Target: Peroxidase
Amino acid sequence: MAAQATRIVFLVLLSFGVFSCYAALDAHYYDQTCPQAEFIVSQTIRNASIFDPKVPARILRMFFHDCFVRGCDASILLDSTPENKAEKDGPPNISVRAFYVIDDAKAKLEKACPHTVSCADIVAMAARNVVTITGGPNWNVLKGRKDGRVSKASDTANLPAPFLNASQLIQTFATRGLDIKDLVALSGGHTLGFSHCSSFVARVHNFSTIHETDPSMSTEFASLLKNKCPSLNNNGDNAGQVLDTTAAQFDNDYYKQVIAGKGVFGTDQAMYNDQRTRPIIESFAKDQNLFFREFAASMIKLGNVGVNEVGEVRLNCRRAN
Model:
């Protein structure tokens, strides 16, 4: 869930009208029409993750970025055209990767069950699978989403930026029907993956007129990040920092790092510094099983935001039919 710098435009969110209610999905939606759907997606994800260990973090982030913009309609998968710049080419999504994994799963599903399984459902199943194969919880993915036909890069301005304060985070999640517990639980997705310097470098260089670095960070961690990102600009394409000490393993280490002042993003420490979210962070740091239960529940809730039940099932996830 590592996002690039964006602005929140609440009026636009409200105008979409897709975040105020939930759809009625079903874990057994494909039992009759494509009973092998879960297996095909699972095997595709597992094989891709063996080939590229970065796949789990990238797929989890893809799901979050899809659902948070226009709802879970696979609009993040649509390619730009000469007439339209799509979501995947918006500033926060330039670093979203692993679209080929979804393409692979879709191609296999089209052979097994033509024109049946939506791209939106594939992304939802894939997000669950990457959590499970990296040691995290399992849950029944509700299905029945249809694929959207609209994807605009400008809409990605609504993704939460890595420098928001706790009140801004709470409000933007609430706009999508997600509460404070969901905010903290879903932020735990930062246990997987890596962030480029651009998402946090402002915390360690000229943070304010008073502080060179963000005072909410541990001194040791600030020095580490400064060494990895020596300037505000031109840090190199691969420069950055893993998001916790076990970045390939889904666990509760992220919360322990935040408590220690070692959260990579400003949002991480902002939540710990706020009395509304701190107790939840502390409870998840102490009890991994509790975190797993709440994360699974929040992922189901997120997966039901803005669901399109009357759209289409794309034949190719990169373009509308």
